[in-house]
Amino acid sequence: MAKATTKTASEEENAAVDEPISDTSETEDTKEENPVFKMPDLMAAIDGTSEMKRSELREAAGLVLSAISDALNTGHTINLPGLGKIHPKRREEKENGDVLIARIKLAPAASEGAAEEAAETEDA
User: How far apart are CA 123 and CA 117, in angstroms?
Assistant: First the structure.
């Protein structure tokens, strides 16, 4: 007779965190690595959204990212509108740098929020 095993909620949560993110619409043959969003991508995304010069935007983005990094390094949970909530779970020291395991709940996409707001307006 096989012995039944049970996992605690913590073990199940850690197992879920360790599972890779996958898109079920892709097959194994066509699966590509997720693209990396780097500083030039961020600059391209926000360029033209304000009156600031590109150099000022880069400095402001760097300061924001530095503040978020500092908060995560000290164990704070990040909760920012437009980004979502990042809750650090554990940190693992590796040869090429520390790895932070975190739970991330993304904020609703802007288009989803606008659609919900429009639906609420129509109901009123």
Answer: 10
User: What is the spatial distance between Cα 37 and Cα 1, in angstroms, rounded to a whole number?
Assistant: 51
Instruction: Give the whole-angstrom CA distance, residue 52 versus residue 120.
Output: 35
Average pLDDT, the chain: 76
**Main-chain phi, psi angles of 101, to 5 degrees:** -95, 125
Contact in structure between 103 and 87 (CB atoms under 8 Å): yes
State residue 31's pLDDT score.
Answer: 52
Are 92 and 98 within 8 A, CB to CB? yes
Nearest CA among 60, 106, 99, 102 for reference residue 77: 102
With 0.85 as the threshold, say if the pTM is over it.
no
Sequential DSSP letters for 76-93: PPEEETTTEEEEEEEEEE
In this structure, is the dihedral angle defined by the CA atoms of residues 66, 64, 70 and 84, taken in order, positive or negative? negative
Output the CA angle 30-31-35, nearest 5 degrees.
Answer: 125
